[in-house]
Design brief:
alpha+beta; BirA Bifunctional Protein, domain 2; SH3 type barrels; five-stranded antiparallel beta sheet; 6 helices; 12 strands; 25% helix; globular
Length: 265
C-alpha cells in the first residue's frame, strides 16, 4: 500500500503552497524520532512559535492515549504534532483537540471523498475502524496554558495487515483502494486546522460540529475509566469534551476520559 518515493515529505515541500498564516509555517522534519509529541514539547519549552509542526517519517516510541504504543512503518503515515499557544481559559483548551479531530475528518473528505468520523474521545474512524488518533498535552500557565501540543497519527498508506490483529485498524489507502499522496492530505489538514483554530480563538465553540462527527453518540456503550466501568447510552458531549452517559438506573454520569466499546447488552 505504500506509495512511491515521490511521496517523501520535506519541510520545503510542506510549506510550498500551504496557504496558512502560521500553522505549518515553521516545520521541524525528521526521518525518525522517538515521539513527535515529546520533541514538540521540548521545542515549545524553548519558545517555538505557535503553529510549529513537528513531523516524522517514523517514530520509535510513538504512543497513543494511556501510553499505548503507536505503530507505523517508515513513510506509511502522517505522524505529527502541532504547537498551539491559545489565549483560552483552561476549561476551553479541550476544544483545541476537538478542532484538530474535525480538521482531520474535513481533510480526508476533501481529498478522498471518504467519510471519516470520530470516536469519543480521540479516535478517527473510517468504516467503523480506527484510522488515526489524537493525543493532546497541555502545559500549565497562570491565566492561560503556556502551550498545547496536539499529536496526530493517521494511517495513510499503511497496510493494516502489518499491524497486530488486536489493533483492528484500517488506513485511508485500504479504504480508498489505492495509495494517497500524503503531502496533499497534510496541507489540506493544516489549512483546516488553522481555520477552525482561529474560530475557537474568536469565541466560536466547535462542540456542535464535534458532536455531529461523533459516531459514539446515541450508541449503547461500555465505558471503562480509571475509577470503574459503566454501561449506558452515550447521550451528548459538553463544552469541555465530557461525555454524558445515561445509565440503566436512569442516572446521568459525566466522564472526561475513558475507553468506549459498543455494548452487546
Amino acid at each position: 500500500m505504500r506509495s512511491n518515493g515521490s511521496d517523501k515529505l520535506s519541510a520545503r515541500k510542506i510549506r510550498d503552497g500551504l496557504g496558512t498564516r502560521f500553522v505549518g509555517q515553521n516545520v521541524v522534519y525528521r526521518e525518525c524520532v522517538a515521539s513527535t509529541n515529546a520533541l514538540a514539547k521540548d521545542l515549545a519549552d524553548e519558545g517555538a512559535p505557535e503553529g510549529t509542526l513537528v513531523i516524522a517519517e517514523e517514530q520509535t516510541a510513538g504512543r497513543g492515549r494511556l501510553g499505548r504504543p503507536w505503530l507505523a512503518p517508515h513513510g506509511s503515515s502522517l505522524l505529527m504534532s502541532l504547537v498551539f499557544r491559545p489565549r483560552l481559559q483552561f476549561s476551553r483548551t479541550p476544544q483545541v483537540s476537538m478542532i484538530c479531530g474535525l480538521a482531520v475528518c474535513d481533510a480526508i473528505r476533501q481529498t478522498t471523498g471518504l467519510l471519516a468520523q470520530l470516536k469519543w474521545p480521540n479516535d478517527i474512524l473510517i468504516s467503523g475502524r480506527k484510522t488515526g488518533g489524537i493525543l493532546t498535552e497541555t502545559c500549565g500557565g497562570s491565566q492561560y496554558p503556556q502551550y498545547v501540543v496536539v499529536g496526530i497519527g493517521l494511517n495513510v498508506n499503511l497496510d493494516p495487515q502489518t499491524l497486530p490483529t488486536h489493533f483492528a485498524a484500517t488506513s485511508i489507502a485500504r479504504e480508498l483502494g489505492q495509495p494517497l499522496p500524503r503531502l496533499q492530505l497534510l496541507q489540506e489538514l493544516l489549512y483546516r486546522v488553522e481555520a477552525r483554530y482561529l474560530d475557537v480563538c474568536a469565541g466560536v465553540s466547535p462542540v456542535n460540529d464535534w458532536s455531529a462527527a461523533l459516531e459514539t453518540l446515541g450508541q449503547r456503550v461500555h465505558l471503562t475509566t480509571m475509577r470503574g466501568s459503566w454501561v449506558g447510552v452515550a447521550l451528548a458531549v459538553d463544552e469541555e469534551g465530557g461525555l454524558l452517559l445515561r445509565l440503566d438506573n436512569g442516572q446521568t454520569k459525566r466522564v472526561l476520559a475513558g475507553d468506549i466499546t459498543l455494548s452487546e447488552h
